[in-house]
Amino acid sequence: MNSINVLNNMNLVEVLRQYELRVATIETYPSFYKLKTDRGTKILKKWNDIDTLKEVFRFKESLAKAGFRKIDRLIRTKEGKPFVLYEGHGYALTDWIDGKKPSIFDEEDLKILGTTLGNFNLATAKININHQIAPWSEHFFRGLKHLQYVERYLDNKSDKNDLDEIILKDIVKLNEQVDRSIQMARKIEKTSFRIGIEPKLCHGNLYSESFKIDEYKEGWIVDLGLPIIDIPVYDIAKLVIRIYKESGFKDEIIYQFLNHYQSVKPLQKEEKYWILTYIAYPHNIWKFLYVYYVAKIPHPTENLSQYKKLMDEQINLGKLYQLLFTYFDL
């Protein structure tokens, strides 16, 4: 972080003069400017892709209209524009969301985390997008083809290393696991689409640190970027896995988080199956094998220990699947 004099940066001068504020100090960070102004602390971000910036603006406004306003909305210029275009770049101004990152080990923080995501998903459910996506079963099937390629490649490899040998021992079970994921996805796809569960806008990459809790104990989602379009429970399925890992694989924290989420947005039976289907697929193992053996991107020297860690993680996710199957009463 560095402090700068705004008068020494004419680009910033031209951009900021289009807003109704007076700037006292500016701090520079790798991806944004932090401004102390007469209207509070603001964040100014520079965007090279204007189309992406427009989509982010539309997403945030759609959420606000749907009732979820705990986000850093874009502040309009003097002329009422949502951002500034200057010399081929976009500049967007937002409020600085002051607050703490939630601790999943704090019961009150976990409650705020769950209810905030529940309210976010209530809002995304109201946003009509009329957009089709490739079924999860198709994505999983492509993943199976990648694993089968890895198996053939290693079978034919003459100079196998320790990692190759271990993967060859695991690959049959991994293929079987992915095949089960495909069958699960196909089954729930038929039911869900028949009863009208449609793709919706999703955050796409939530972590517990994607949230902030302000001084009034209100939960916010910060750094909201370009949304993805997927099954409505995509965000909670991904976040459940990350919270489970962050907690050191503690069951009770997952129960509490889901209880708080469902106090705001109860999960339908089909949504519960979607969550289980997502958990059942070995995403990180597939990614590791794809990068290392299919795309052939060099891994660091600790690739063997990394693989073993991912397999241990997958064992714990199998336990998560079992405990959620019981918790969901399916």
Automatic annotation (TrEMBL):
Transmembrane segments: none annotated. InterPro entries: CotS-like, Kinase-like_dom_sf. One of its GO terms (cellular component) is endospore-forming forespore. PANTHER family: SPORE COAT PROTEIN I. This is Uncharacterized protein.
